[in-house]
Specification:
With 343 residues, the chain is an alpha/beta fold. It has one domain: Alpha-Beta Barrel (TIM Barrel), CATH 3.20.20. The strands form 3 sheets. Strands 3-4-7-8-9-10-12-13 form an 8-stranded parallel β-barrel, surrounded by 4 helices. Strands 5-6-11 form a 3-stranded antiparallel beta sheet. The longest helix has 21 residues. Bound molecules: flavin mononucleotide (FMN).
């Protein structure tokens, strides 16, 4: 059913197709459409960061930036969903066109630029959702906030979403907000994370307990810089890592007519760099540090690879656009299979 729908949707420009698909899914939830499309998501519980995940396959940030479709997406069988990125105030993002399909590669390039309705809108959606599963809220900074003042934006969003979500992701790795990735560098990172960890701890005592806070990193590093930043993360008091965001690297799609579009590349060609970053992170952070593997999962076996590289959970985005909800069950089964092989 999804293949048939996708062929129709792919006749539309990517952003239009995105909105049409999500609105249709949300409208169809009253007649059970998401469940019908979701098929069977086997139980495969994971305990991590004090949370109980019914299965290890989550929806990555960026698909439901404003939390407008949590009920419908939640019914597809995901083990958790991450909404956002949101910023303190609404912002329009970059001029269109800003999203491109590379179907030959099962890939996308986007330079959306944190288009979102602002954190207050997300909070209203989090308050009213009927989805009972685990929700992560992904937060960022306003386009025009200088990097050395960015912590205040993140702190503002953290304080707003904290009471209404299960975990928070600090996104410092989008390639589409100028200079954002500088926050990953050791020069900024330790002070930046210290401020947010202190804010998280203050919130934990004000509200009903601790919410894990994760950092989401890019796949575009040289090994030395990556290791240095991971060492800062390990010492920071942060609860977990998401590896990775989209890549600036185009070597896997060179020659494609969209290859030179500015923005982040995601989907199958992003997998090698994402897996390498994940494996390095596992090595530096040690066996017990919670890591969510993300980037380039378009088949069940890709999810199994994430597990073998050290992921505790996995997220999908571009693969979900190309393959639809059947990818969720396929990933869960492959994940369980990787266990049975003793990997
Ligand atoms: C259109 C689009 C929008 C995205 N928006 C966000 C975002 O707002 N915040 C974020 O942390 N990641 C965002 N991402 C990155 C994804 O969450 C994910 O890290 C990346 O696409 C790699 O995973 P994939 O290969 O499974 O797509 C976006 C990705 C795409 C394709």
């Amino acid at each position: 059913m999804y293949n048939w729908l996708r062929n129709g949707l792919f006749l539309l420009p990517p952003e239009v197709a995105h909105d049409v698909a999500l609105n249709a899914l949300s409208a169809g939830r009253f007649v059970g459409l998401p469940r019908l499309m979701g098929g069977c998501a086997p139980a495969a519980p994971v305990e991590l960061m004090g949370l109980h995940f019914p299965n290890p396959v989550g929806l990555a940030a960026g698909l439901d930036k404003n939390g407008d479709h949590m009920d419908a997406l939640g019914a597809l069988g995901f083990g958790f969903i991450e909404v956002g990125t949101v910023t303190p105030k609404p912002q329009p993002g970059n001029p269109k066109p800003r999203m491109f399909r590379l179907p030959e590669h099962q890939a996308l390039i986007n330079r959306l630029g944190f288009n979102n309705k602002g954190v207050d809108h997300l909070v209203e959606r989090l308050k009213s959702t009927r989805y009972k599963g685990i929700i992560g809220a992904n937060i960022g900074k306003q386009k025009d906030t200088p990097v050395d003042q960015a912590a205040a934006d993140y702190r503002h969003c953290l304080e707003k979403v904290y009471p209404y979500c299960d975990y928070v992701t600090v996104n410092i790795s989008s390639p589409n907000t100028a200079n954002l990735r500088e926050l990953q560098d050791t020069g900024h990172l330790s002070e930046f994370l210290a401020e947010l960890v202190a804010a998280r701890d203050a919130l934990a005592s004000q509200h009903d307990g601790h919410r894990p806070m994760l950092v989401k990193i890019a796949p575009d590093w040289d090994e030395t810089a990556l290791t240095a930043s991971l060492e800062v993360i390990a010492q920071s008091g942060i609860d977990g890592l998401i590896a990775t965001n989209t890549t600036l690297d185009r070597s896997a799609v060179s020659g494609h007519r969209h290859a030179d579009e500015a923005g982040g590349l995601s989907g199958a060609p992003a997998k090698t760099l994402a897996d390498r970053t994940l494996a390095t992170a596992r090595g530096v952070l040690g066996p017990d540090f919670p890591i969510i593997g993300l980037g380039g999962v378009t088949r069940g076996e890709d999810a199994a690879d994430k597990k073998r590289a050290g992921a505790n959970l996995v997220q999908i985005y571009t693969g979900f656009i190309y393959r639809g909800p059947e990818l969720i069950g396929e990933c869960i089964r492959a994940w369980l299979g990787a266990d049975e092989q003793g990997d």
